[in-house]
Amino acid sequence: MVQIMSDSSALYSIAQGKEVGLVVNPLSVSVADKTYREFEEIDSDTFLKLVIEGNTPSSSQPSVGETLSLYEQYGDAPLLNITVADGLSGTYQTASAAAQNMPEEKRKNITVINSGTLCGPHRYLVQKALSLAKEGLSTEEILNALAPSLGNHRSFLIPNDFDFLRRGGRLTPLAAKVGGLLKLVPVMTTTKDGKRLEKFALCRSFASAMETICKNFLENKVGPEHYITVSHAGAPALARQALEKLRAVFPDSQIDVLNLSPAFITQGGPQCVAIQYILK
């Protein structure tokens, strides 16, 4: 059976991964002069508290050594590693480099793919791959089954604090400064190559931001065949507001609310909300 592997962008801890047969390689965050593997050594609530107290966070991908260790442990059988979007994280590059450093007999078993996305859609891809692997499909068959989803997804981010995006290079300093002065609600989206975030719109309120996002979903023919997620960083009230709007516009779609991990809180900041869809 093909072993499925992913980083913690798919919002699984190592223990949660074990429960479903998933190998998880955690991302790391640094805050208050300490570095933690997310979900293993720090949870989102604790991390949020430290950030809100004024500590500036940073994040990093799993090291080549950590990835090599997992490949050595699981690489005797076919292994499919589905990583967070290349460019938004260096994880794909690290995972690919680690695979190239494996002995030939194990290297040929390892396939690394760039999901082109993160969080909710990434989680869906991993869950679908797990289901297909348990059905006995080969790596090639799993990739063929994932292909339609890999080509049909979109992510939007509504940050509460421009500074986190500016520090992470996700927003130009000028846009951050202007947006902050105008007290507007920004809507960010991934670029076509999935490697960066760019400004999609500036709105007057969170409600108007959701209207803008739903309009784009409708233009892209999002419907019952898509999976929609609302992921947030300590913003349950905003997440509920987003969920209510999405359920009103897309009553037949599966919509889940998820908590963002520390690594993505580092980029989006406290109180940010991500709205995403992916074709099932």
UniProtKB/TrEMBL annotation:
Pfam families referenced in this protein's UniProt entry, alphabetically: DegV
Keywords, in A-Z order: Lipid-binding
Signal sequence, start to end: none
Coiled-coil ranges from the UniProt annotation: none
InterPro entries (alphabetical): DegV (IPR003797), DegV_C (IPR043168), DegV_domain_contain (IPR050270)
A GO MF label: lipid binding
Taxonomy, superkingdom: Bacteria
Protein name: DegV domain-containing protein
